[in-house]
Design a protein that fits this description.
heterotrimer; B: 328 residues; 2 domains; globular; C: 118 residues; mainly alpha; 0% strand; elongated
């Protein structure tokens, strides 16, 4: 049984790490502000929640697990809200998403 | 493994500091300084300083960033680059870096248990705290009881900063005859539905967590300073969402001034009560029937005083910036 | 292996000097204040690096654990005070910068000095 919990938590942690890494690569490679926001916010939320679930499995049934579950709920609420607020602020200050035909050598 | 993580974080810290110095758009520099504070908090946690990590994260990455953004909103947010490239500062700075690095070769390596800093006072504190004060968190015991006089001085520094900011920013600016009441444009995020809903849901929990940190400072990382920063962050979030006018109606400047002064009076009052009961100034052992209960009572009261003053000051500074009329 | 044992102190030296460089060579007042916060953070790093003990844990005494090594609590108390004093100084400095900007119209130090000489 302990073996199964260990393998499950390892899988969750690795999956979370992979998602955060993909988010980082996306934030660097995407051409425009809005696409970068999209890449960074979605993957970061999911990656952080997977990592926290992996740690909850490791903590077993204890006070620490309840505190970690509270942190997970808090992050689930605030990460998407922060991304929305950021994109909204960019839209209100006039940054418009530009349609791009080819992404040849734009930064 | 943890050492490698620490080395990686320290390298990131240097790169972030380089970015702060070189950034010409000040908004970018302020955001990078928030990231810098968060990395410092992670490094403090790796080095076993849990209280300090909590304080740095709450104060440095949270409240300081908001205050700097408030100041940026009232001034320019671009830096004009240096007109001529000056060599003297770079030369002076490089020579001093090399001298300091040369001096570090004499230091004991990181984590050495035989280092002189671990020999004299620290073991005394670690042994005597369970007998004299009987609370698990040794850092709170030293801060509140063994070195309570220093904490009183720090409380007065925060008090002075709050009063100083009120002196500087309380008079109306030259254009317009407004006082500290905000204008109609400072409406906050009234038209943005998602942050309003989520923010209103979160503010009571943030304040509750701040109170938990305040009263739990004896048993885990926590205490008055961290709690003050957290509770003021909750109220700052409320002010950002609902607008400056609503926040000032909820907690006016009069209440904030009373909080700032009340915390300091509570702290000094506990000290004087110690004298009235027959002990020295800030001697908590005489406050209750047996010395340990007296210590607990004294620590509880002065941490409450510290929390009150820190909350009041941080909120005062934020409102002083936010209620100031904007230049443009 | 001396490298890993002293890396914290080298990073302290580099951050100290970066903060000092920002204070003495940049003309913008807010950039000077940011350099001051980097300088302070470097000093915090020095003190907290000195408090770590190999195999120790945070200085919160756990009931019933004998022979547990604890890290040194004293630098943590000093730095706790220093962090809060740092933000008090920063807020006062920012208030002064706001007043200067309203009076002179700029926050570049050389332009302020030129306006004062006139």
């Amino acid at each position: 049984m302990e073996y199964a919990i260990d393998i499950a938590s390892w899988l969750l942690l690795i999956a979370g790490g992979v998602f955060v890494f993909i988010g980082g690569v996306g934030a660097l490679r995407m051409p425009d502000f809005y696409t970068r926001m999209h890449a960074a916010s979605l993957t970061d939320t999911l990656g952080t929640i997977l990592i926290l679930l992996g740690i909850i499995l490791q903590a077993g049934l204890s006070l620490a697990a309840i505190k970690l579950a509270a942190i997970t709920v808090f992050l689930l609420l605030t990460c998407p809200t922060a991304a929305y607020a950021l994109a909204n602020a960019a839209r209100l200050s006039g940054l418009t998403p530009e349609p791009r035909v080819s992404d040849a050598e734009e930064s | 493994m943890v050492t490698l993580f620490g080395v990686f974080l320290l390298t990131l810290l240097v790169i972030t500091a380089f970015g702060i110095v070189r950034a010409q758009h000040l908004f970018v520099a302020v955001m990078l300084s928030g990231i810098f504070s968060l990395q410092m908090a992670a490094i403090f946690f790796i080095l076993d300083a849990a209280d300090v990590a909590l304080t740095e994260a709450a104060v440095g990455a949270g409240v300081a960033t908001v205050l700097m953004l408030g100041a940026l909103a009232l001034t320019d947010d671009r830096e004009r680059g240096p007109k001529r490239h000056r060599w003297a500062p770079i030369v002076v700075v490089s020579l001093t870096t090399l001298m300091v690095i040369y001096a570090t070769f004499d230091k004991p390596r990181l984590g050495d248990p035989e280092a002189p800093v671990h020999q004299h006072v620290a073991p005394w504190y670690l042994e005597e705290t369970p007998q004299l004060i009987d609370i698990p968190n040794v850092v709170t015991a030293i801060l509140a009881s063994f070195r309570g006089y220093d904490t009183l001085g720090e409380l007065f520094v925060i008090f002075t900063a709050g009063i100083g900011v009120l002196f500087l920013l309380a008079n109306p600016s030259k254009r317009g005859a407004r006082s500290l009441l905000p204008s109609a444009e400072a409406e906050g995020l009234r038209h943005h539905l998602v942050p309003r809903v989520v923010g209103r849901l979160l503010v009571p929990f943030i304040v509750l967590f701040g109170l938990y940190v305040q009263f739990h400072g004896d048993y885990g990382p926590g205490g008055g300073f961290q709690a003050g920063a957290l509770i003021s962050a909750g109220f700052i979030l409320y002010a950002l969402i609902e607008g400056e006018g609503t926040a000032l109606r909820a907690m006016s400047f009069r209440v904030l001034r009373a909080m700032i002064a009340g915390g300091a009076v509570l702290y000094v009052g506990v000290g004087i009560a110690g004298m009235l009961f027959g002990g020295n100034f800030l001697d908590y052992s005489v406050l209750a029937d047996n010395p340990i209960a007296g210590q607990h009572l004294g620590i509880l009261l002065i941490e409450a005083g510290v929390g009150l003053t820190v909350t009041g000051t941080l909120l005062t500074v934020f409102h002083a910036f936010a209620a100031r009329e904007q230049r443009r | 292996m001396e490298f890993l044992g002293l890396y914290n102190y080298w990073v302290f030296a580099i951050l100290l000097m970066m903060g000092l460089y920002a204070v003495i060579s940049r003309a913008n007042l807010i950039k000077k204040l940011l350099g001051m916060t980097i300088f302070q953070a470097a000093v915090f790093l020095l003190y907290i690096s000195m408090d770590k003990v190999d195999g120790g844990t945070a200085p919160i005494i756990q009931a019933g654990a004998v022979d547990q090594l604890y890290s040194n609590p004293l630098p943590q108390v000093l730095i706790l005070t220093a962090i809060v004093v740092g933000i008090a100084t920063l807020s006062l400095g920012l208030a002064i910068v706001v007043r200067i900007s309203e009076t002179y119209g700029t926050i570049e130090e050389d332009e302020i000095r030129k306006m004062d000489e006139e």
